[in-house]
Every structure is written in C-alpha cells, then in structure tokens.
Specification:
- The structure is a single chain.
- With 366 residues, the protein is α/β, with parallel strands linked by helices.
- It is 41% helix and 10% strand.
- The protein has 17 helices and nine strands.
- The strands form three sheets. The chain has a four-stranded parallel sheet with strand order 1-2-3-4, with helices on both faces.
- A hairpin with a 5-residue loop joins strand 8 and strand 9.
- Helix 5 (107-113) packs parallel to helix 8.
Length: 366
C-alpha cells in the first residue's frame, strides 16, 4: 500500500451516499483508511483546489467517464501537460479510446455479462447466477494498482508519468482467458457444463453423508486416481474398463460421478477428512461466506484484520490480500464521512478559515 497525502476520488459506483449510513460494510471495506475531500468541480475555484492537490501527487485515479473528465479539466491530456510526472490511473468499462468509452458499464455489465463470466457458469437450462457485489471491481482495482506501480517505476527511470488504463471488460476477458483462448485457437464455442459432465470428473464437487459439500482437487487425473480409489476402498475401480484412464473417465463422467456420490454418501465429512489425509487426496471444503469467515485455515491465512475506530474499539473486517516482508502495512482506521476532511486538507494547503467560508458561499465546497 503506497502512502498518500490525500485521496482524490471520482466515483461512479452509486455508493457515494454510503458514508452517511450508520453501517455500510461494503463501503467500509473499500474506503477505510482514506481521507475524504468533496469538491464541486463545476466551480472554477473547486477545480483550482483539485489542481493544487495534484501538484504534489504521484497518482491520480478515476473511474469517471471520459466526457465528464474532459468537461472538468481532469482528462489525461490536460493533467499530463500541467503535471508531467503524474501517473494517471483510469478505470472504464470498455477503454478510454474506444467508441464505447462513455458507455455506462459497472462490473455487472462489462465484466460479468459482456465478457462471458456469467454464461460460463450457467449450464444449458439453468438459471443465470447472480453476481456478488464488487467481484469485477475488486479484480480491476488490483490490476490497476499493479499497473500503476509499474508506471511509477518507469517514471523513476524516465522522469515522466503516463496514462494507465484498465477496462472492466478486459479484466473479465483475461479472467476467462483459458476459455477465450480455446475458442480463439480452436474456433469452437465454449459452453458451461454441470458437475456430471466435467472435463475431469475428479476435479468437481461432491457431498458427504452428513450433507457437507467439498471439491476434489485432483487435477492430474491419472496421478491422483489411485489415491482416491484407495481412500474410499474401491480398488476394484482399477480394473473397471469404464474408468481405466482420464480419456475414458471423461467419456463416462456421469457414471463415475454417480459411483463417487454413492461412496461419499456412506461417510461423514470427518471420516472422509481422515481418509483423504491418509491417502493424500487433495480437496477443499465448499464454504458459504458465513462459514468461510469462521474457517481456521482462512483465518490463519490472515484474511481478517481489526480496524481501530474513533471510540477506541476495533471492528473486524476483511483484510487486503497482499503482504510485504520489508514494509508491513497497517490499518489506519474506519472510512470517513463524505467530505469529512475537506476543511482539514484546505488548511494544509494554506487556506485560512475566512477563505474556506468564502469557498462555501460560492459553492466550491459543501
């Protein structure tokens, strides 16, 4: 996490009002540790303040549509001319230079729907699953952060900033890259399949006799086949012609899944856990979110963090996923209210209270 003097954020997520709610967990996750400054960019003096903030900034990040940025003098060309060392990070639905650059997107549009993510999870005849909030947004944000860091390194070498763009639709296509490459290279449609028709029947989901769901992870199908058979006491599968190797097991997937369903139904998850460990069978539990947040392995991986509040109490939240051995990150605090730090930041810029009051009267700040 790179330290910043202030966060200037242009947001089209539809959640700009969220800080006014007493509790808004998604907003808390995405905005904790920030300072919030509100500027009415239609006002010339507000734009002047934005430019003052950018004088010492390393990075400008926005997800506003290009036409709005141009209208307010915050497009890349304008800012690069004024601040040539500034790295300009931009998220759009379809790319800042495409004909669709001003098309409204959200991640549920460009990422989930248009890039094929939803349909890749929908077998024929099944209902399309609902996207959970922020799936594409968070992946795109991480992609942009990595690209910005590369641009900052390039600036150290060249002395000049540049435009960094990460479109939601391209993140979706990259996430679906295996399927997309199969279709591109082989010229065939790639459609979803159910668990009985998986390409490899032993890297799919099953259920124990006490109703616990789990996912087998036996990607190297022939290597792991013997371990699985021994773990459930079905060595007779070794001589069953239907299951001789991955090629025939793939063709007889429905029959194999039914056989395994019957065997797993005979044991509790605790019993299967012991058997899998004894025979080195790779697997993972299928958790609901309320189960994942209590999972000891998830917790030991550092997935949660205690965030300090103004009252001295802490609130447990989801942690960001990256750790650093030499520059450990730390949690700063709960998210700000909208515009909470506007006056504080203006004072740091050299404004006095009379000037701040004047800005309020002119509508430059709320």
């Amino acid at each position: 996490m790179c330290p910043a003097k202030v966060n200037i954020e242009a947001n089209i997520s539809g959640c700009s009002h969220a800080s006014r709610l007493d509790i808004n967990p998604p907003f808390e996750l995405d905005n904790r540790g920030k300072r919030s400054v509100v500027l009415q960019l239609e006002n010339e003096e507000a734009r002047s303040i934005a430019y003052q903030l950018l004088e010492d900034a390393d990075v400008f990040v926005t997800n506003m549509r290009p036409r709005a940025l141009s209208r307010h003098g915050l497009d890349y060309e304008t800012l690069h001319e004024r601040f040539p060392r500034l790295v300009y990070g931009q998220v759009t639905g379809y790319g800042p230079h495409s004909e669709a650059r001003d098309t409204a997107a959200y991640d549920i549009g460009a990422f989930w729907s248009q890039a094929g993510v939803a349909m890749s999870l929908t077998p024929e005849g099944a209902e399309i699953p609902q996207q959970r909030g922020g799936m594409g947004d968070h992946m795109t944000g991480q992609g942009l952060a990595g690209a910005i860091c590369a641009a900052l390194l390039a600036r150290e070498r060249t002395g000049e900033g540049q435009h960094v763009s990460v479109p939601l639709v391209r993140v979706g296509m990259y996430m679906m890259g295996w399927d997309a490459m199969l279709s591109l290279r082989l010229g065939v449609p790639i459609v979803a399949y159910d668990r009985k028709h998986a390409v490899n029947p032993i890297i799919t989901s099953y259920k124990s006799g006490d109703g616990k769901r789990f996912w087998l992870l036996l990607l190297q199908a022939d290597r792991h086949w013997g371990d699985l058979c021994r773990s459930i006491g079905r060595e007779d599968f070794f001589t069953d012609e239907r299951f001789a190797d991955i090629q025939v097991r793939r063709g007889n997937g429905p029959q194999l899944v039914e056989e395994l369903d019957a065997e797993f139904a005979k044991k509790t998850m605790d019993e299967l856990t012991v058997a899998f460990a004894e025979h080195d069978v790779w697997w993972a539990p299928l958790n609901y979110i309320h189960e994942a947040i209590k999972d000891p392995m998830v917790r030991e991986a550092g997935a949660f963090v205690d965030v300090p509040g103004a009252d001295g109490e802490t609130t447990e939240m989801v942690a960001t996923p990256a750790d650093f051995s030499g520059t450990q990150w730390e949690v700063r605090g709960m998210p700000p209210e909208l515009g909470q730090h506007t006056e504080e930041v203006l004072l740091e810029l050299g404004y006095d209270w009379e000037q701040i009051a004047n800005l309020k009267e002119k509508g430059a700040i709320p």
